[in-house]
Each structure stands twice: as C-alpha cells, then as structure tokens.
Amino acid sequence: MVLARETPCGRGAVTFAGHARHNGDVASTTAVDAAHPQSPVRPNLTSVGTIVWLSSELMFFAALFAIYFTLRSNATELWSEQSQLLNIPFSLTITTILVLSSVTCQLGVLRAERGQVGRTGSLLQVGQWGMREWFVLTFVMGALFIAGQVFEYAELVMHEGLTLSSDPYGSIFYLATGFHGLHVTLGLFAFLLVLGRTYMTKRFTHEQATSAIVVSYYWHFVDVVWIALYLTIYIIQ
Questions:
Q1: 52-88 burial, b for 16+ CB within 10 Å, e for fewer?
Q2: pTM, two decimal places
Q3: Domains of the chain from N-terminus onward
Q4: Keywords on this record (predicted)?
Q5: pLDDT in tens, 221-232
C-alpha cells in the first residue's frame, strides 16, 4: 500500500508507485515465462517421411495405370478376350480379405495409441485384444491375399496360357498386380518387425507406437491401390 501526502510532488509519488507496481508485475510474468518455456510443436519426422515416400509410390502406380489404359486403348479386342480368363468371384474373395485387413490393422493402431500391447483377457474375448493380436490377424489376412494371388497366377499360366510375355495384356496384368503383391509382402515384413520389437523390449515406448502408426499408413495405402487395381482390371476390364 502506498501512502501519499498532499504535497506538490504527491501526485508524482503516487504515479511513480503505480509504475513500479506495473513493472514488478511484468518482471514477475517474465520470470514465470522463463521458468516454463513453451517448446514448439514439431511434426513427427517419421510420419512425414513416410507420407512423402508414399506420395512417390503413388506416382509409380499412377504410371502403371497410365500404361494399362494406353495399351487397352490400342488393343480393345485383345482386352475383351483376355479379361474373360479372370476368375472374378475368387479375386473378389481375396480383395475382401485385404480390405478387411485394413480394419483389423486400424484396430491394432488404436490399441497401440492406448499403450495396450497384448490382450487383457481370453483369446476368445476379441474386445480385450491388444495391438499384437490385431496385427497378427492382419498379417494372416495379408498372407492369405498373397497366397490367393499366387494361386491365381498359377491357374492363369497353367490352364489359360496367360504369361508375362504372351501378349500386352498379360504383361501389364502381371506387372501391375505383381508390383502390388510385392508391396503387400513388404508390409507383411513390416508387421513382423513391429511385433518383434514388442517382445524384445520390456516397456512399450512412444517410438514403438509411432512405428505401428507408420506401418498402418503403408498398409492402408496398399489397400487403396489394390481397390483401384481391382476395379480397373477385374470390373471395368
């Protein structure tokens, strides 16, 4: 509290005291800010790098689509004939498996974000599953897709005579679906790495959760690409 007498310099004394109080408040605020600095929010470099890499992969598949439509426009009769060799019901089955694997993958990511690595109940209690169980199921579904694709190739080669070098249709069919199958296989290895790290470390870390999220980005990407390939090759033909 400031006491001031009614003197010619009284008002000046009160004003000086007010400024001093204001300066003290500013100094206190500055001291608090210095004691608790706010670190800038930075994007996760791993996630950003993955998105950039997937963008380049998208351009690669876009080039394959461009080649496919170019060849198709120059050989419409060949396309109409050879597309009849495809087993649409079987391809729809393995496509459904791959699309559903994207759902199980995301359920695993949700558990990873909560820090739940393993199941908290019986194996039959699906609602209590952790990241491991959902990722293992995703791996199995992805492996079934690859096995189905290999079976389809074998049927086309041995029974229909459609090979990589038989005609332009066979070339682009095996290139487009084969490169996608290679990407799915790489995704399966990524799931194994994420699962293996959960057993090698005692504590589930933020970096491991980030790895699970990054793998899910990749898996969703290959799912979306396959949907586009399936519609283009098997449905539109």
A1: eebeeeeeebeebeeebeebbeeeeeebeebbeebee
A2: 0.79
A3: 1-38 (no CATH), 45-236 (1.20.120.80)
A4: Cell membrane, Membrane, Translocase, Transmembrane, Transmembrane helix
A5: 999 999 999 999
